[in-house]
Every structure is written in structure tokens, then in C-alpha cells.
Protein: Histidine--tRNA ligase
Amino acid sequence: MEKVQPVRGTHDLLPDEARRHRHVAETARLIAGRYGFDGVATPIFEFVDVFARTVGETSDIVSKEMYVFTDRGGETLALRPEGTAGVVRALISNGLTQSLPFKAFYYGPMFRYERPQKGRLRQFHQIGVELIGPATPLADVEVITAGADILEALGLLDRVLLHLNTLGDAESRTAYRAALVEYFTAHKDKLSEDSLARLDKNPLRILDSKDEGDKALVAGAPLFGQYLTQAAQDFFGAVTEGLTAAGIAYKHDPLLVRGLDYYCHTAFEFVTTDLGAQGTVLAGGRYDGLVEQMGGPSTPGVGWAAGVERLAMLANDPAAAARPIALVPMGEAAEKAAVPLARALRRAGLSLDVGFSGNMKKRLARANKINAQFAIILGEDELTAGQAQWRDLDAGTQVAVALDALVGHARAAVSA
Structure:
């Protein structure tokens, strides 16, 4: 019989890795909560238009990577490739645009059909925050600072560098887009097939092409800074001043772009070289046109997302769970007595593992395997005497403890 395997690009989170994932998610949730970002959870699948309209029909995500399927009712649905679109859809469909600002934190699985590689899977997990409503530079600073504080809490802030750019306002982008189209049209014969397709619909995305020929052309392309309005320059200046005041170092990266028209002003990425090559661990930006594009009122917003797999690979190893106590009941009467005793110990806040079968030697061998610090041995003789044997597995010592004093004795021993 053929051995059952996981689907390519998916990954089982076994206890040790699950603990690292949980550490990332819970740390992020805690820090985000200090900023007032409340947890939200949206469905893992949506109508396909939610993503086609927001991620961009010409993007690789929509054209090549999105998992799309038709359900039994004939609806065309997609597994979510990212989190922002679902949060914005929830904002609109639940009428929350009337009670802004809306501050959301999310964590959950995302899905993209792409080549699996280190830190990148077809089912992966993201954390993210969205701040929807405020149009001020201070909101951008708040969101970036929240990301920096989460990275710091994970032990990563000194191993990343914030790359920062401005995408300007609508007037700036219109002028810059025209300049890019003129420049790249003059070099059409040297553009890659993907960049040729983007030239008319999404010329800014050519700037982050991975094709070597495109990169050579991009090196000579006009820079956005030449086309920024005074208002856009002032907005970016206020963001950089705020980050400096917060003590967050950054590098101005003029080639950092977001191709879709609803993005504007601030774009940012925290980048590390600890993954072998430059790798983005947290990225975001301002998207003032997104809510309106999805059918809601004109509403500004800014946010970021980060891949949990990458963060879990890089972050400090979280402390392992407290070493458990092994409860070893021997005989039918002892097994019955172990049920209320185990519950009492767990309700007292203690981690307990019950040995269900095998002789004494096998049960104590399991206690060693799970790295138990202590063992409680309960047999018929102990029950008759109203006591249990308390064994220190590290020291190899053993004492008798009255059953009615066992919870107190266990708490004192574990906390010593």
C-alpha cells in the first residue's frame, strides 16, 4: 500500500514547530493589542472577485498562483492568498465604515500555488494589522512602529532594516506612470514577456521585476522623486520625522513600489539577510483607494502583513512548556482514583501526564521520554495508606505524601 503523503507545498506543524508558530502569533497579538488592534478572523475563502479586484488581475498572485474553484452551487470562489482584502470586505459588508477608525489584527492560513522553497509554502500563515480611517502620516508611523515592536519582541529588530519609500498622491502617480510608459515603450524590445504585459496596465510593477534584462532597464528608469507633488513630499517628510522620533532606523529605497493604483504614499518593508539572500519578513503600505475600489465609500487605510513561517525560522526559540508531572496509577482501583486526582492537580495549574498502560518500568520510561520532572506513583498499598509516592526524577529521591496534601506539595515542588 502506497504511503500517504502531504500535498506538495503543505507542511505538518508538529509540536516543536507548532510551539514556535504559536509564539510568533501570540507575541504579535499581545503587542498589537497594546496599540488597540483587535483580533478579527475572516473566512479562508471568498468570492474570487474580492481578490481579483484588490490584488490585481494582472498580478502573478491572481493570474498564476490563486487557488480558484467552483462550488456545488456554481459560485466561483478562491482560497485567500492574502489577508487585507478579506478584512476590507468584512469592513464593508458589516457596515463598519460608519464607525472608524477600524483597527484589526489577524492571523491565519493563506494559499498560493507557487514553487515551494525555504520559508515559502503553498499553505502558509500570516499575521497582519490594518488601520482604516485615518489619512494622516501619524497613522503610518503607528502601523510601522507596531511592526517594529513585534519584531523586537521576537528578537529580530536588530537583524532587519526598514526599507521605506513614497508612492505619492494620485497626481504624482499619474505623472510618474506617464514617464515610465514613455521610457519603457522606448525599450519594448528588451522587456520580458511579463513586463510587456504590465506596460499598459501596471507599469510600476516593472520596477520590481526579477528578470535580469528588466533590472538593467530599471536602473536607468526615471525616479519617482522627480514627480512628487509638494503635498506628497510633505506627507513623506512627516512619516520619516515620526519614525526618527520613535527611534526606528530606515533606508530610503526609491525602487520599492506597489503596482496597483489604490496604493499611495508610504510603502515599507522590513528586510533581513539572515535567510541566505535578502528576504522581506514584514511589508505593507498605505492603500487609500482600496475600500472605494471594493464598493465602499472613499476611506483611507494603511497596514502590513508578515509571514509566520519566516518569522518562526528567525525568531528566538520560545521557552519550552513547563516540565510535566507524570501520574503513574498501578491497578484498577488506582486508575479510578487517578481521575479526580489528575483533575485536581491540573485545576491547580500543573501540567500532568497520565500513564495509561504498561508495567511500572514502561510507565516510568514514558515519564523520562516526556522529560517529566516528578512522578506520582499510586498503587493499591498507597491507596490503603491514603498516600502516594512522590518521586523526584532528577534527584532519584522518593517520599510518601498524604493524598489530601498532594496538590499543595506538587505546587511547592514545581515552583521551587
User: Anything to note?
Assistant: Residues 15-34 form the longest helix (20 residues). The chain has a mean pLDDT of 90. The chain has two domains: 15-169+229-314, 325-415. DSSP finds 15 helices and 16 strands in the chain.
